[in-house]
Amino acid sequence: MSQPAIDTRALRDALSSFATGVTIVTTADDAGEPVGMTASSFNSVSMDPPLILWSVTKSALSAPIFQKAEHFSVHVLAANQMSLSNRFARSGEDKFNEVDYQIDGNGVPQLAGVLTRFDCNTWSVYEGGDHWIIVGEVKGMETQKGEGLVFSGGSYATANSIQPPNPDLQNDDGPIEELLIYNLARAYVQVSRRFHASVEEAGLTIPEWRTLASLHGGKSRSVSELVARTFVSPKKMNNLLIQMKQSGWLTVEDGSDGQVVTGSAKGQSQVEHLFELCAQQESDALGEAGKSGQDRLIGLLRQVIENTNE
């Protein structure tokens, strides 16, 4: 008795429930020109020898090049590299135009700024239905700390470690449970713990994040405004602004009422992905309350801020 045919669209949707990392695989063609494509089919195979694999659909324009390539590199993308992933997912254009990369001794392009790079010799190529399965032997690698880009359910996402429950913050009925100040503090500690870990993984301090977030979109603010928004002392803020100005993340100019600080495009790029990440984490924290619950909560908190502003 023959099995019913699997619906391709349904299978694709079902497979999308399995979250994967996002990579870009690069090599060179016969003329030495750089070739690259986005791939989420990357996986480890063996530690001894060190083997990895990925697959490329036979219909891809670059499939014949990767099938016979002797060397290739797999680049694991960071959470802020969605645009780079999109660029290499498209066909029919110069994907390497205005992309920061260098050519290694085997002629393989190596992309800058990625989370991890595996430099491989082709170990074997297998036919797998409508794909070529390419196994590589890792000959070199570079990696750095950070948060990886994830693809799940047909869209980009990020992955964070699940924090174990804090035994010091268990529910315990009592008068303190009815206090606003206690619930504000407890909610802040629990919600911010996860996000602040993501900020630090992005290479920023919390005051730097709050400063850049307050200047997002090229906004201009006074030093006193930034002190109030970042919760640091004026002296620490002045030192922080000097460092961030040197990094090109903002500008500081003299105004009629004192110094005016303005965000730069470079500074904005440092935190762009963190806004998306924060929104997702806040949505997770709110659960079924959803967007309407978030709006009501923010409205109440703004009222508290206004009523307690000194």
Structure write-up:
The protein is of the alpha+beta class and 310 residues long. The protein folds into 2 domains: 8-157, Roll (Pnp Oxidase, Chain A), CATH 2.30.110; 167-308, Winged helix-like DNA-binding domain superfamily/Winged helix DNA-binding domain (Arc Repressor Mutant, subunit A, Orthogonal Bundle). The chain is 37% helix and 28% strand. The protein has helices at 8-15, 63-68, 82-89, 180-201, 206-214, 223-230, 234-246, 265-286, 290-308; strands at 20-21, 23-28, 34-39, 43-47, 50-57, 71-76, 101-103, 109-111, 116-128, 131-143, 149-152, 155-158, 220-222, 250-255, 258-263. The strands form 4 sheets. A 7-stranded antiparallel beta sheet has the order 3-2-6-9-10-5-4. The protein has a 3-stranded antiparallel beta sheet with strand order 1-11-12, with no helix packed on it. β11 (149-152) and β12 (155-158) form a beta hairpin. α4 (180-201) crosses α8. The longest helix is centred in the middle third of the chain and has 22 residues, at 180-201. The chain is globular. The N and C termini lie far apart (79 Å).
Which descriptors would you attach to this protein?
seven-stranded antiparallel β-sheet, 310 residues, 28% strand, 15 strands, Pnp Oxidase, Chain A, Arc Repressor Mutant, subunit A
| Broad CATH class of the largest domain | Mainly Beta
Separation, N- and C-terminal Cα atoms: 79 Å
State the fourth-level CATH superfamily of the largest domain: Electron Transport, Fmn-binding Protein, Chain A
Q: Largest beta sheet: what is the strand line-up?
A: 3-2-6-9-10-5-4
Question: Into which percent range does the helicity of residues fall?
Answer: 25-40%
CATH architecture assignment name of the largest domain: Roll
**Average of the residue pLDDT scores:** 86
Number of domains: 2
What is the CATH T-level topology of the largest domain? Pnp Oxidase, Chain A
- The proportion of strand residues reads 25-35%
Low-confidence stretches: none
